[in-house]
Amino acid sequence: MVPDKVEAELVYMGIPAPTETREQMIERFSPYPEPIWEPVPLPEQLDIEESLPSARAAQAVQLLADLKEHGPGQDAFAQGRLAHLMRSSKDVRDTVLVAGIENVSGATLLELYRGAPAEYRDVTGAVASVTVYIEEGKNIGAAEIVSHVSRDGDQGALADMMASAVDGGLPPRVLRETLT
Predict the structure, then answer these.
(1) Do residues 52 and 88 touch, judged by C-beta distance below 8 A?
(2) Cβ neighbours of 119 (radius 10 Å)
(3) pTM of the entire predicted model
(4) How many CB atoms lie within 10 A of CB 61?
(5) Which of 12, 54, 85, 147 has the highest CB neighbour number within 10 Å of its CB?
(6) SS3 of residue 134 by DSSP
(7) For the chain, how far is it from start to end, CA to CA, in angstroms?
(8) What whole-number distance in Å separates Cα of residue 105 and Cα of residue 119?
(9) Spatial distance between the Cα atoms of 138 and 104, rounded to a whole number of angstroms
């Protein structure tokens, strides 16, 4: 068991406190039983999809920065909008992925994934698995996240890459250098 003072210092530094069991650790990387945010309304989804990918990418990076600054659970609407922007284009997804890596936004992206409705779990999970692996170097976390990403969907290639990185023991710094 970790002393309370040590656990408080870890949390203050943004480092998750150690878990007592493997199951508790896996739970930290699993989706919540119920979504904590909802998709944006259909008319807004259509507006997003009609806008230029560069505008979507810029908006997504700003939303990620805002969510990181204010805490991911503070703005459910922003979470839904960010997820839809990421799902709208692989270019937008990849821009968010690089921004997440460069700005150490793994905790924010992990929360986005954990609270996602089922239809957004693939895109949020694929991105979260990469940032968690790079930031924390935890094979268990990345493997648990990527296990919830469909290999048959649009995010299958990114999920397969992450599964290979985890299974092959690729050092997180090598993955970071490759992606940024």
Answers:
(1) no
(2) 12
(3) 0.84
(4) 21
(5) 85
(6) helix
(7) 37
(8) 22
(9) 15
